[in-house]
Every structure is written in C-alpha cells, then in structure tokens.
Amino acid sequence: MYKGATPRIRKVLYALIIVFALLGIRLVFVQLGAAKPLSAIASNQYRLAVPLLPKRGVIYDRNLKELAITINLNSVFAEPFRIKDKGSVSQKLANILGISRDEIYRKLSQEKGFVWLARKVSPDTARRVLALNIKGIDFVKEPQRAYPNGVIASHIMGFTDMDNNGIEGLELRFDKYLKGVTGCRYAIRDAKQREVPSYEYKEIQPMDGDNMVLTIDSVIQSIAERELENGFKKYNAKGACVIVMDPFTGDILALANRPSYDPNNAKASPADFRRNRAICDFFEPGSSFKIVAASGLLEEKAVKPGDKFFCENGEYKWCGHTYHDHTPRGWLPFKDVIKYSSNIGTMKAAQKLGKDRMYKYIKKFGFGAKTGIELPGEVTGITAHPVTWSKLSLCSISIGQEVTVTALQLACAMSVFANGGNLVKPRIVERIQDGSGHIMQNFESKKPRRVISEETAQEMRNILRGVVDSGTAELAEVDGYFPGGKTGTGQKVEPNGAYSHSRFTASFIGFAPYDNPKFVIAVIMDEPRPFYYGGVVCTPVFKRVTAELMSYYKIWPASLHSDNVKVSTSLKGKREIKKNNR
Among 546, 536, 431, which Cα is nearest to 484's? Predict the structure, then answer.
C-alpha cells in the first residue's frame, strides 16, 4: 500500500512544486514588470480629474466695444462607479437632457471615473437635473463663447467648437492667444467612491486667454451690414460683400458679407453662408480693373488725360475677335474713356502701354498676391505672366478679363489714388493684450509702397470724380462730398469656357470725400438680378454707406468745383486744396 502510494504522492508533490514555482515567477513579474500599470489602474479607480477650461479672451472693436465674449454654463458629468440603478437614472436624465436613454445608459456603464453627459446646458436644464439629487451626477462650470451682436461681423469673428477651439475667422487665426491654458480639478475618493475632503491638491486654476482689439468700428460695421443687406435682397444677389477701409493706414473699419450667419449657432447655417467672400472669392472684375491700365498709362506718360481715342461707335474687331461697348461712342478724350467706361477706348490706349508694362502695374497694385490681412483663407486671385498671354490678352486684361481679383485687392488698389500713390497693407487687428491691459503684441501699419506718383494719383482722382459726377456711377453721388470711383460689370465664365450673357459680378470701388479722402468703400454683388450693372446695383449701397459715415464722423459738406480746384495729398496725411491760377 505504501509503496503503491509513493508515485502518486510524488506526482502531487511535483505538481505543487511546479504551481508554487509558477506563482513565484508570476509574483516576481508583477513586482518588477507590471507593478506600475496595475498601480495606475487601481489609482484611477480612486482618482477623479475634471478639466477646467479657461475663459477665452474678449474680442473688442477699435472703441473697446465687445464683439466676442465668454459666459459660464453648467456641464453635466457622471461618476459611473457611484451610480447603482443605472437604468432608472438613464430614464430620468433622458427626459431632461433630450438624449436617448440608451445613449446615457451606455455612458453610465463605462468603466471610467468620469464621463460627460451634456455640455453647456441652459440654466433651466441645470436646475431640473440638480432637483433630481442623484449621487454620482454633478456639474462643472464651462466657458461658452457668445457673440452679443449676432450676425454683425460674423465673418470676421468666426466661431468656436464645444471645447472652445477656434474654427473660423479670427477665432481660428488667433486661437493660441485667445484660448488660454486648461486647468484641472483633482479629487481622491475612498472605497465607497466618496470624495476625501482632506486632499490638499484639489485644483490647478486655468489661465484665461488674451484679449484682442480690432480696427473694426462696430457702428460702421452695423451701417455696412444694414445697407449691404438691403442691396442684397433688392437685387436678389447670390452673394455680396462690402469693405470700408482707411486708405492711409490700411485699417479695415468694416467688412461684411451676404449671405451671413449667426456665430452663436453656426451649425444652423450651411458652409456657403460662412464663407468670407471678401477675401476667399475671386472673380473677373470687368471695368473696375481699368484703373490699372489708366494709371499705368498716365504714370508712364504714354497718354495724357486729353488725348483722344476713336471708340469705333461701339464695335471693334481685333485679331479676329469683336469687342463691344455698352453705349456706342465716337471720339473721346482719355479721361472720358474711363468716365464712360469704354472698353474699346481702354483697349486702344492699353496698346501704348504694352504687355510688359501692363503686367508691371498689375503686380505693383498688388494683384496676384495676398494682401496679408490677418484673416484665414485669403486667396491670391489669378494673374498670368505675359509669356503665356495670347494676342488678345493685353486688350482683354486691360478691361478686366483673363484676370481674377478679390474685393479686398480692389479696395487696396483704390486706396492708392486716395492716399497719393501708395499701396497700403490692410490690417484688421490692432493689438493683443492680457486681462490687465498689458500689450502682448502690436500690429502696426506697415510702411506703404510707392506705386504711382502723387501727380498721377491726383489725375486719377480727377478722372474718377468724373465717373461719379457725369459718368457710369452717377447713382453714387453724395451731395457736398463729391466722391470718386469706378464701376465694374464682369461676365462670368460658363462651363464651356464662353462668357455668360446672364451671370455677372457687379462692383463699385470709390473714395470720399474728394478734397480729403477718408474712406475707400468697395461693394461687390454676385449675380444680381434683374439688373446687373455695377453702376446700378452697387452704387446705391456706396452712396448710403458714405452718407452715414459723413454724419457719424461729423464731416460737413463742402462746396467744391472740380474745374478750378486741385487736390494735393501726402502720405503724412497733410492735405490741402490749391486753387489753380488759371
């Protein structure tokens, strides 16, 4: 019996030895290799970390009026380990939060110490959840971006997501300044998932974001928005934009687009409504581009304002192609070629400039390059090099075809004439400062670049004044302020490559007042109907905005006769009216 049992006992002993050996090896492995991961798992069951989002910086207009602010709202979170009857709790919360019971139950069933249930709920919703008095359901204050003026300046501001990340506009471009640094609230729980009150390190405070001051004037912005909306609706346009700019500093005082959206509820509007057309859309400008050829011709002294051109009574054949004027005319002095916007007269004059010099002035005026404004999404437009031009290109480009531009580029180009011949860099951000007012970064106006002489700029102002006085932009006239400017009506290109006879981009870019230019205003209408000429659909918007700006700035009307007054303008802002001796 004893001898027979010995092998079995040995087998049991061997088995026990192997088991204890394996346990020993496992113990060594746990102690040396897996101690930290296992400790972290255990620690996470007793540690609670709730992120504390910083308050996003305020965005102000130039007069420190708030355009974007931050308010605090309650967000609902759960600690699943503390909730026993998850089914009942899920049903109660679903009725209040507007979330399905299954979705809440799924979150409460996760093996986590913290889960979000609803972010940034209304005060009424927070009160109803609090009234349930459910253990394991709590709140944390979270900042919510708010835009007090609604749609006003929405394309400038942009908007943020649920976590306060900038998505579009300045909110995106300057997110690293505005966002701040996230903090955290820590807590230790006991075995029953109760917070231990004696825990010392409970909270790391967030660092609020920096504030931003813009060049925008909210009063001017409201005026521009209102008048653009009226024109946009009246002419059933597909899109529209208006820019109000200081021609000496480059400061953008207003920039508005249509259609628009409310950044407080950006998801309610399609992406097309949120596009900043003033810098993101490019188009063939048509006759508003004639200012480039005209100023180049005058600067190079290739023509004089009084030189006459035969406008072929409205029909001109060149290199196998026939060009037309909207109104047939015969002989016209060059200044009237621009005043009446003759395509034929401009094309004939452009031949004296030549393609290389034409291209030089296109680039000098900043076309084909970004302006450098502090907004995301700006495009360059398209300007081909002369080596790729056809025999028709010089004629076509001189009248605003075969080239594309943005509304902001046109505004900058018109500023050249208003300020005495210099191209300024537009800016929309003045400075960034912290909560105490200490300036973190200044966005000073860049040194302007000379494009044409003061004499040429003066001649162009006289010509552009004629456009409004008795040319294609008579509807832009503002009594006592004598604005100048240029109309444009660009044909869109159809999918087959031909120019459309039903789809147009209308424009007017102008300055005011004549004797002391303070503003440049660009108005663009995309596919207006039934009227589509820039001198019809854009000039009324310019007129009304200009009239209100004169009142707002208390600029009083003057008596000015262009035949016996000469205007001299310097970059330093010294402007004086000199009477001619003639």
Answer: 546
Local structure of residue 375 (DSSP, 8 states)? S
Give pTM, 2 decimals: 0.84
Q: Return the number of other C-beta atoms located less than 10 Å from residue 351's C-beta.
A: 14
* Architecture of the domain made up of 50-99+112-196+203-214: Alpha-Beta Complex (3.90)
Q: What is the CA radius of gyration of the chain?
A: 34
List every span in the chain annotated with CATH 3.90.1310.10.
Answer: 50-99+112-196+203-214
For 420, the token pair is: 């005495």
| 11-30 as b/e: b if 16+ CB within 10 A | eeeeeeeeeeeeeeeeeeee
The domain defined by 218-262+272-579 folds into: Beta-lactamase (3.40.710)
Above 90 in pLDDT, residue 476? Answer: yes
One-letter amino acid for residue 493 of the chain: V
Per 3-state DSSP, the chain is made up of helix, strand and coil in percentages (nearest 5) of 40, 25, 35
Q: Please, where in the chain does CATH 3.40.710.10 lie?
A: 218-262+272-579
Per-residue pLDDT of 547-560, as tens digits, reads 999 999 999 998 54
Q: Find the DSSP H helices in 30-149.
A: 35-44, 86-97, 101-108, 123-132
89-131 pLDDT, tens per residue? Answer: 899 899 899 899 999 999 998 878 789 999 889 889 999 999 9
